[in-house]
Amino acid sequence: MPELPEVETTVRAIRPLMLGKCIRAVVIRSASLRWPLPRKLVRILPGQRIQGIERRAKYLLLQLETGTLIMHLGMSGSIRVVRSTTVPGPHDHFELLAKGGLSLRLRDPRRFGCVLWTQSPVADHPLLAGLGPEPLGPQFDGWYLFRVARRRRAPIKNLLMDGRIVAGIGNIYASEALHLSGIHPRRAAGRISLPRYERLADSVRQVLARAIEAGGTTFRDFVSADGAAGRFRFALHAYGRGNEPCRQCGHVIRKIIMGQRATYYCPGCQR
DNA sequence: CAAAGGTCCTGCTCGC
DNA sequence: TGCGAGCAGGACCTTT
């Protein structure tokens, strides 16, 4: 699904089209997402202007006049901006119709995503309050990782994917960052040196930044707001490359399962 | 039938 | 022994 770069790609695509637009109507075609989609949005949102479009972790935040719409794409979600007259697909659950003829549509076949509404400061919302720093922000660096990893026996990959530690790194980019920094995904987080954590933090930032430049990674469902697939798939070094040679050292990339999640690494250059 | 990119929640384990 | 943090696994759902 959409990890941080895919949500960022979506935000950047939506922003120039929808920022400042006034909402004309709201359509809920299916309210049964991860949590019930609040029906009152149909009543509350029309007449409100979209004042901000931001991302926090993998959450997409639409700042309106009286509150914030919190959206998550789950495993299979995507958001498109289309002409309001476009015929909706079977999994287009939620739609914001703007004045001027454009619509923002949420499509989510697996329905692991959500649309929530809060009138409080959005950072205080229970889903966001416990999140760790943004990996592309100033608080995230090698020292931070080293410090929070002390005495932890869980594998480093699990730590990277824990949103309370660092926000928004998903399964693909955890594998990629570990490959780039030469760290084995199963290595206990508490047994990695500070210099290696510096390198890992750099790798995380580099992989995410490059993926954003490429418009994200598309494996099956993800498309940006204009319907385009992400191109970072072709730049992946580990994820999805089981039995293929490492681009770095030539060893065969291995696929293992960690916590029921596919994990790819190179036995040659990752220790 | 297995697997798919997320993450919340529950209950267990381990170390202090 | 008891407590809490950390950790593993299940749950959610549809499509290929």
Describe the structure.
The longest helix is centred in the C-terminal third of the chain and has 20 residues. The chain has 7 helices and 10 strands. The two termini are 28 Å apart. By secondary structure, it is of the alpha+beta class. It folds into 2 domains: 121 residues, MutM-like, N-terminal (N-terminal domain of MutM-like DNA repair proteins, Alpha-Beta Barrel); 124 residues, Orthogonal Bundle (Helicase, Ruva Protein, domain 3). A 4-stranded antiparallel sheet has the order 1-6-7-5. A 4-stranded antiparallel sheet has the order 2-3-4-8, covered by helices on one side. The chain has a two-stranded antiparallel sheet with strand order 9-10. It binds a DNA duplex (16 and 16 nucleotides) through helix 6.
